[in-house]
Design brief:
The protein is built from 1 helix and 23 strands. Strand 19 and strand 20 form a beta hairpin. The longest helix has 9 residues. The chain has 3 domains: 82 residues, no CATH class; 114 residues, Immunoglobulins (Immunoglobulin-like); 100 residues, Immunoglobulins (Immunoglobulin-like). The N terminus and C terminus are likely disordered. The protein has 355 residues and is mainly β. The protein binds 2-acetamido-2-deoxy-beta-D-glucopyranose (5 copies). The site of one 2-acetamido-2-deoxy-beta-D-glucopyranose has 6 residues, from strand 12. InterPro entries: Cell_adhesion_signaling, Ig-like_dom, Ig-like_dom_sf, Ig-like_fold, Ig_sub, Ig_V-set. It comes from Stylophora pistillata (Smooth cauliflower coral).
C-alpha cells in the first residue's frame, strides 16, 4: 500500500471494526527490527501527518513471530507470538488489520513515527462436521452442521446438494427455505477459537433428501484467500415394511383379454422381502410364470417400494376368483393383499389393468 492511500485511510475517523494488537502502543517505544528479510517491522516517516509503511506483513494470529522479525520491547522483553486484544488504536486503519506506530517529537521539532501494517489471516479450517454417511428417516427431523474457524471469520457458509459425490462446479448454492430446508448461521466459540457454525435443518425425512451435501466457506483479504469444503452423504432409510397394497380390490377383464394385477410392496435395508408369491383362491401352490401367467417385480421411483405384477393371458371364465399377493420375510409375519378378478362375458373391448 502506498503512503497516499494510507493517509486516506487514517483520515477516516470512525471505524466499525478495529482489530488490535495485544500490546499497548506504549510498549512499542522501543520497537526494533531486523534490517533485511521479509518480515521487517520497520518504517520511516517524514511528515507529521502520517506514517509511511515500508512493508506490510500478513500473519496468523497466535503464530510465532519468526526470529527474523526480532521485535524487542523496551530493549529486553521479547514479543514471541502475534496476539490481538480489544484495545483501540488511535486511528481507523481502513482495510488494514493493524498499524503499529509511535509518534514523538524529534530534536529538530518534527514528529517522527514508526509504523507497519500487520494483516492477520488464518486459512479456513473445519472444526466440526456432521458424520458421513448420515441417515435420514421418514418423519424424523435432521440437522447437518459445519463449523469453521478462520481469520478473518467468514460471513457466509454455502451449502450445495449433488446427486453424485462429484462436485458440480456450475451448480448454485441451496436457497434458504427451499423444500422446507432452512439454514442458520451463528458465531460460536469452539476449542477456544471463534468459529462460524452453519446448520442445515431438514423438516421431516423423505427420500428426496438423499444426496451429497457440501458446505463451503471462504475468507480472504486483498491478495490472499482460502476456502475449504466438507461433504456429507445423506442416506434415506426406508420405513418398516407395511402390508402390500392394491389400488383396487376388484378388477374386471373381458374374455380372451390379458389382465395385470398389481400389488405395491415395501422393501427395506434388511433385505425384506425374502419371497413374494401370488396365490389364486385357497390354492396351496403359488402361481408361477407360464404360458398362462407372467409374474414380475418392477422398480418404482422409490427405492422403498416395488410393484409385484401378475399378468393373466387369455382370460377365461375359469380365471375369475380371488388373487392374493404374499409378502414374506424371515422374522416378520407374512402380510398379503388381494384382488378379486371378475370376468365379463361381453365383447372384448381391450385390456383392463389394475394399476
Ligand atoms: C434462513 O431463513 C430463516 C427463516 O426465515 C432465518 O431465520 C435464517 O436466519 C435464514 N438463514 C440464513 C443463513 O439466511
Ligand atoms: C478455493 O481454493 C482453491 C485453491 O485452494 C481455488 O482454486 C478455488 O477457486 C477456491 N474456490 C473458491 C470458491 O473460492
Ligand atoms: C396378450 O399377451 C400376449 C403375450 O404378450 C400377446 O401375444 C397377445 O396379443 C395379448 N392379447 C391381447 C388381447 O392383448
Ligand atoms: C390365447 O387364446 C387364443 C385363442 O384360444 C390362442 O390362439 C392363443 O394362442 C392364446 N394365447 C396364449 C398366449 O396363450
Ligand atoms: C406376528 O403376529 C403375531 C400375532 O398376530 C404378533 O403377536 C407378533 O407381534 C407379530 N410379529 C411381528 C414381527 O410383527
Amino acid at each position: 500500500m502506498k503512503n497516499q492511500n494510507f493517509e486516506q485511510d487514517t483520515r477516516l475517523s470512525s471505524s466499525q471494526l478495529f482489530l488490535l494488537f495485544s500490546l499497548s502502543l506504549a510498549l512499542f517505544e522501543d520497537v526494533s527490527s531486523a534490517p533485511t528479510t521479509k518480515c521487517e517491522i520497520k518504517a520511516s516517516c517524514s511528515a507529521p501527518a502520517g506514517c509511511q509503511i515500508t512493508k506490510e506483513i500478513t500473519v496468523n494470529p497466535g503464530a510465532k513471530i519468526p526470529t527474523n522479525c526480532a521485535i524487542t520491547v523496551r530493549g529486553t522483553e521479547k514479543i514471541l507470538t502475534w496476539q490481538q486484544a480489544k484495545q483501540r488504536i488511535v486511528r481507523n486503519t481502513g482495510p488494514l488489520d493493524l498499524v503499529l506506530h509511535e509518534v514523538g517529537e524529534s530534536n529538530n521539532g518534527k514528529y517522527v513515527c514508526q509504523c507497519t501494517a500487520v494483516h492477520f489471516t488464518r486459512a479456513v479450517d473445519l472444526l466440526r462436521g456432521s458424520s458421513s454417511p448420515n441417515i435420514i428417516s421418514k418423519d424424523k427431523k435432521l440437522e447437518l452442521e459445519c463449523v469453521f474457524s478462520a481469520w478473518p471469520l467468514p460471513a457466509v457458509v454455502n451449502w450445495y446438494k449433488d446427486k453424485q459425490p462429484v462436485i458440480d462446479r456450475a451448480r448454485l448454492p441451496m436457497m434458504n427455505g427451499t423444500k422446507g430446508i432452512y439454514q442458520s448461521l451463528e458465531k460460536i466459540w469452539l476449542n477456544e477459537k471463534e468459529a462460524i457454525r452453519s446448520v442445515l435443518r431438514f423438516p421431516s425425512g423423505s427420500e428426496e433428501h438423499e444426496g451429497f451435501y457440501t458446505c463451503i466457506s471462504a475468507n480472504g483479504i486483498q491478495g490472499w484467500s482460502s476456502n475449504i469444503s466438507y461433504m456429507v452423504q445423506l442416506i434415506f432409510i426406508c420405513p418398516l415394511p407395511q402390508a402390500p397394497t392394491t389400488s383396487s380390490s376388484v378388477v374386471s377383464a373381458s374374455k380372451l383379454s390379458n389382465v395385470s394385477l398389481t400389488c405395491l410392496i415395501d422393501s427395506d435395508e434388511s433385505g425384506c422381502p425374502d419371497d413374494l408369491y401370488w396365490y389364486k383362491n385357497n390354492d396351496r401352490v403359488p402361481l408361477a410364470s407360464s404360458n398362462k401367467y407372467n409374474i414380475v417385480v418392477k422398480p418404482t421411483h422409490s427405492k422403498c417400494k416395488q410393484e409385484f405384477i401378475l399378468t393373466i393371458f387369455n382370460v377365461t371364465e375359469e380365471d375369475k376368483g380371488k388373487y392374493s399377493c404374499h409378502w414374506m420375510c424371515e422374522y416378520e409375519n407374512t402380510t398379503k393383499a388381494s384382488i378379486v378378478l371378475k370376468v365379463s362375458t361381453g365383447s372384448t373391448t381391450g385390456n383392463l389393468y389394475s394399476s
